[in-house]
Specification:
The protein is an alpha+beta fold. It has three domains: about 180 residues, no CATH class; about 50 residues, no CATH class; about 130 residues, no CATH class. The protein is about 55% helix and about 15% strand. A six-stranded mixed beta barrel has the order 2-3-8-5-7-6. A hairpin with a 2-residue loop joins strand 2 and strand 3. Helix 9 packs parallel to helix 12 and helix 11 runs antiparallel to helix 12. It is elongated. The two termini are about 50 Å apart. About 35% of the residues are buried.
């Protein structure tokens, strides 16, 4: 054991000597060393920051989407060009719970393009034939008034989005509850105004700039067939959204003989979004790696310049017994030292940059654990890669020619 300890102490002592020499050599060219460190730091910081920003972007997108509801299915009505069939009917929707063995809340809707006018202002938008359940399933919040009621029948009552209300309002004539707006050729009384809301990408309607009216009204008052354009379905608690989506699709396609019907769940969209964000994160990491490579080139320049200035020193070392392997190790150790220091500082700077980006964006910061070893490892690999050529060149130097160097 004493012999093993002696060998270990000898190796540690040798590493300590190499470390001291590497630090002294780098201090001798402080300006070039500093510039190389800056290059590695910027590269490592870019990799770490961009990976974390990509991960935080993905997390924030998923979080916002989940807040809009992951228990919703969206049925898109349509007739395929290659098949016969009919659109979805109310009888199909009413028979769906018993057919698929699930009791669920469904909200059919129909849409039509309309022109809405108020006190000389005109806006082209969508009219939505709605049922009372639509407000719950689409998570619509009222700023004032009420939503469509089952007792409205075919009355010309309407609920408008906050964005549409702002577009139609003027300083002297704001849109308020009880005001009448012209929708194509009919006057509708405003009974509710929604709060401003971010559009749910799963639902094919931007409620913020739409006008909603009873299903019977859109058939009676507008140049619309009143056919059901789609259905929002609430998935029962603890049920599998993807499985129920498949059941609903099979049921509606069989019932209506229509293979153009599409059923999509929030889980499916979130999964697709997650895959896209992974590619986005990899792309950002690749951009950061380019900066790191530029820093590696700086390391190679420092090593080559240092070797040119230290030719006599290297010649003396080799003349008094230093092997080519020793010279190679010395140069590679210097490159590794630059990489480790620059990578460590750059990793910390990258984390700070990603955190500040999240704070400025109003996001909740979440650390990507993978970014820490990735930044350090890439820095070390780049330093070693760009240090190989100068190290080999120094180790292959002829002692006689080196000693003759001025």
């Amino acid at each position: 054991m004493s012999g093993l300890n002696a060998i270990m102490l000898h190796h540690l002592s040798g590493l300590g000597i190499i470390l001291d020499e590497a630090i002294d050599n780098l201090r001798g060219v402080r300006q070039r060393t500093f510039l190389s460190l800056v290059g590695i730091m910027v590269g490592a910081a870019s990799v770490v920051a961009l990976i974390n920003i990509g991960e935080n972007t993905a997390s924030e997108s998923t979080r916002q989407f989940q807040s809009m509801g992951t228990d919703i299915l969206v049925v898109q009505n349509g007739v395929s060009m290659s098949a016969t069939g009919r659109p979805i009917s109310m009888s199909d929707i009413n028979g769906m719970p018993s057919a698929i063995g699930q009791s669920s809340l469904a909200a059919p809707f129909s849409t039509a393009s309309v022109k809405v006018q108020f006190h000389g202002k005109s806006v082209d938008t969508n009219a939505v034939g709605a049922t009372p359940e639509l407000a719950e399933l689409a998570r619509l919040k009222l700023g004032s008034g009420r939503f469509i009621s089952e007792f409205d029948g075919d009355a010309t009552f309407a609920v408008i989005g906050r964005g549409l209300a702002d577009s139609l309002s003027a300083n002297s004539a704001p849109v308020r509850i009880g005001e009448k707006v012209r929708v194509d050729d009919y006057l509708f009384t405003i009974v509710g105004i929604l709060e401003s809301a971010v559009r749910n990408p799963l639902i094919p309607i931007d409620f913020d700039i739409s006008i909603m009216m009873p299903m019977k009204s859109i058939r009676r008052a507008l140049a619309s067939s009143g056919e059901i354009s789609g259905v929002l379905i609430k998935v029962p608690e603890n049920a599998d959204p993807v499985g129920i989506a498949a059941q609903v699709s099979d049921y509606l396609r069989t019932k209506a003989g229509n293979n153009g019907i599409q059923v999509q769940s929030a889980e499916q969209l979130i999964e697709g979004l997650h895959k896209q964000n992974q590619l986005f994160t990899l792309l950002l990491a690749g951009i950061g790696a380019i900066s790191l490579i530029v820093g590696g080139i700086g390391i190679m320049n420092v090593m080559l310049a240092g070797i040119a200035e230290r030719r006599r020193e290297i010649g003396v070392r080799m003349a008094i017994g230093a092997r080519r392997h020793d010279v190679l190790t010395m140069i590679m150790f210097e490159a590794s030292l630059l990489s480790v220091i620059g990578g460590s500082v750059g990793t910390l700077l990258g984390l700070v940059a990603a955190y500040l980006f999240a704070v400025i964006s109003g996001w909740q910061f979440s650390l990507s654990i993978l970014s820490l070893p990735t930044g350090l490892t890439m820095s070390l690999l780049v330093g070693l890669f760009f240090g190989i050529y100068p190290a080999i060149k120094a180790s292959q130097m002829s002692p006689i020619e080196a000693l003759r160097a001025e």
